[in-house]
């Protein structure tokens, strides 16, 4: 079992409040977040950006390991992820996580690549965590 931790602090309430996020590794150390960073494009991070980063990283690693397991020894994977936050009644909900993968894998067929990427999308731990629509656009560079 592996565990990781992060913490958040919020001073003040509502739109006027200011928050900070810190991770165990120190990659984020009192990184600012709040209403402005979430909805107004102000500097800092927000929960959806962190989810997008986690999903892109997890899916890319899962794809890499699946390709290695299928006998491929070299390649490059680049994934972007867009997480959508929509109004949901009186609150909000993450409704979609859209993965876009571009890969260069010598000697792989389009069909094998598509199958491995789809399996990685379904099997990565962050995909399993999310309760939203997950889409994948996967393209293979020639």
TrEMBL record:
The keyword Oxidoreductase applies. Pfam families: OsmC. Its EC number is 1.11.1.29. It comes from the Bacteria. GO terms for molecular function: peroxidase activity. It is an enzyme of class 1 (oxidoreductase). Keywords: Oxidoreductase, Peroxidase. Gene3D superfamilies: 3.30.300.20. NCBIfam families: osmo_induc_OsmC. This is OsmC family protein. The lineage of its organism: Bacteria, Pseudomonadati, Pseudomonadota, Alphaproteobacteria, Sphingomonadales.
């Amino acid at each position: 079992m592996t565990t990781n931790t992060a913490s958040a602090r919020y001073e003040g309430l509502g739109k006027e409040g200011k928050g900070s996020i810190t991770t165990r590794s120190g990659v984020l150390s009192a990184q600012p977040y709040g209403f402005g960073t979430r909805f107004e494009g102000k500097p800092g991070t927000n929960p959806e950006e962190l989810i997008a980063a986690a999903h892109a990283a997890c899916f890319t690693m899962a794809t890499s390991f699946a390709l290695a397991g299928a006998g491929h020894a070299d390649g490059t994977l680049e994934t972007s992820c867009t997480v959508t936050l929509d109004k949901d009644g009186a609150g909000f909900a993450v409704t979609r996580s859209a993965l876009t993968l571009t890969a260069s894998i010598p000697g792989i067929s389009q069909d094998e690549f598509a199958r491995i990427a789809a399996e990685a999308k379904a099997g990565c731990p962050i995909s399993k965590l999310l309760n939203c629509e997950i889409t994948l656009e996967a393209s293979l560079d020639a």
